């Protein structure tokens, strides 16, 4: 689904017309969120966000897992495999097809063992059977089935919560206060805009810790692309963030093409991207998530072969502070 533009503007007529549905949706979701979850014998760290679409959950989950690994622990990721065909529980292998498991689980599986399960409790049991010392959930803040030792909310500083309305009137999954009721800390990625200030204020009023971080591109990938004229394409929640990352690295694309989040590229689209790049002497570049969705499909093999990627990683400004919160909430020695 491509997000409506009005989600990211001040509330207007479109938001007003959709707000009755948002009220009903929000009340149902809030009531569900209050249900008690299953308590596990190991800590559960949930990395979630307040809105539909991307905020930086997957890079944050990877950063958390690496922090845990640095302390000698064995984290296992738990993910539902959004847009994948398989329901699980199953262990995600790096060579799996994105059409089966989704793109995000493939990114996670590069860092730590990853369990895919639409049923979070069944997935957690599979993670325990696999020897998990701690479970890191990529998404699931609004799913009450598991009790969370730490619920870390990730917020895109630039986009914030948009117009502040609940779906379908806006991007919020349910009301802000109801979601903060189950949160333990906030991580803001990128400088906060006016669209993020209400979340920062509400979080601080509750006395919850607030952290900041930055998504930075891989230096080797930047060096490899330096001096090339680029056609950048992306099918993520906020393609503009990818294009801005390129520009901030001195790699401003000549042309861009954006698609809906988790877009399944067609053979026709692949051929057009290749032709457009060849016509203007451009190098194709995309995100790691988009590239993973090209792999394993013979119809997209030519686009995969012609495309470079720009890997990114999360840098947390106060790693020691986040480590202290993580240790206090989970009881782990970090």
From TrEMBL:
Keywords, ordered alphabetically: ATP-binding, Kinase, Lipid A biosynthesis, Lipid biosynthesis, Lipid metabolism, Nucleotide-binding, Transferase
Enzyme class of the recorded protein, top EC level: transferase
Recorded catalytic activity of this chain's protein: a lipid A disaccharide + ATP = a lipid IVA + ADP + H(+)
Pathway assignment: Glycolipid biosynthesis; lipid IV(A) biosynthesis; lipid IV(A) from (3R)-3-hydroxytetradecanoyl-[acyl-carrier-protein] and UDP-N-acetyl-alpha-D-glucosamine: step 6/6
Binding site for ATP: 51-58
GO molecular function: ATP binding; lipid-A 4'-kinase activity
Pfam families reported in the protein's UniProt record: LpxK
Cellular component GO terms, alphabetical: plasma membrane
Segments crossing the lipid bilayer: none
Gene Ontology BP terms: lipid A biosynthetic process; lipopolysaccharide core region biosynthetic process
Keyword Kinase attached: yes
Enzyme Commission no: 2.7.1.130
Annotated function: Transfers the gamma-phosphate of ATP to the 4'-position of a tetraacyldisaccharide 1-phosphate intermediate (termed DS-1-P) to form tetraacyldisaccharide 1,4'-bis-phosphate (lipid IVA).
NCBIfam families (alphabetical): lpxK
Family affiliation: Belongs to the LpxK family.
UniProt-recorded name of the protein: Tetraacyldisaccharide 4'-kinase
Organism classification: Bacteria, Pseudomonadati, Pseudomonadota, Alphaproteobacteria, Hyphomicrobiales
């Amino acid at each position: 689904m491509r997000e409506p533009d009005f989600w990211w503007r001040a509330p207007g007529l479109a938001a007003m017309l959709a707000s009755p549905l948002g009220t009903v949706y929000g009340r149902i979701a809030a009531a569900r969120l209050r249900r008690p979850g299953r308590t596990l014998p190991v800590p559960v760290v949930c990395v979630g966000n307040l809105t539909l679409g991307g905020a930086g959950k997957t890079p944050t989950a990877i950063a958390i897992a690496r922090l845990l690994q640095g302390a000698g622990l064995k984290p296992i990721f738990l993910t539902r495999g959004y847009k994948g065909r398989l329901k699980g529980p199953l262990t995600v292998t790096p060579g799996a097809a994105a059409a089966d498991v989704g793109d995000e689980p493939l990114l996670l599986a590069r860092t730590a063992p990853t369990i895919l399960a639409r049923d979070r409790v069944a997935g957690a049991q599979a993670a325990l059977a696999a020897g998990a010392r701690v479970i890191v959930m990529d998404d699931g803040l609004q799913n009450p089935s598991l009790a969370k030792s730490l619920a870390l909310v990730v917020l895109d500083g630039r986009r914030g919560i948009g117009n502040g309305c609940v779906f379908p009137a806006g991007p919020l999954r349910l009301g802000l206060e109801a979601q903060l009721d189950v949160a333990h800390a906030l991580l803001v990625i990128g400088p906060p805009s006016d669209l993020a200030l209400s979340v920062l204020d509400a979080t601080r009023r509750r006395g919850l810790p607030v952290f900041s971080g930055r998504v930075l591109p891989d230096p080797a990938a930047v060096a490899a692309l330096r001096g090339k004229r680029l056609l950048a394409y992306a099918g993520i929640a906020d393609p503009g963030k990818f294009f801005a990352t390129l520009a901030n690295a001195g790699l401003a694309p000549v042309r861009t093409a954006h698609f809906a989040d988790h877009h399944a590229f067609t053979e026709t689209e692949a051929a057009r991207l290749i032709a457009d790049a060849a016509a203007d002497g451009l190098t194709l570049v995309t995100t790691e998530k988009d590239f993973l969705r090209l792999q394993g499909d013979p119809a997209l093999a030519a686009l995969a072969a012609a495309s470079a990627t720009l890997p990114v990683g999360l840098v947390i400004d106060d790693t020691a502070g986040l480590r202290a919160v993580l240790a206090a909430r989970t009881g782990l020695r970090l």
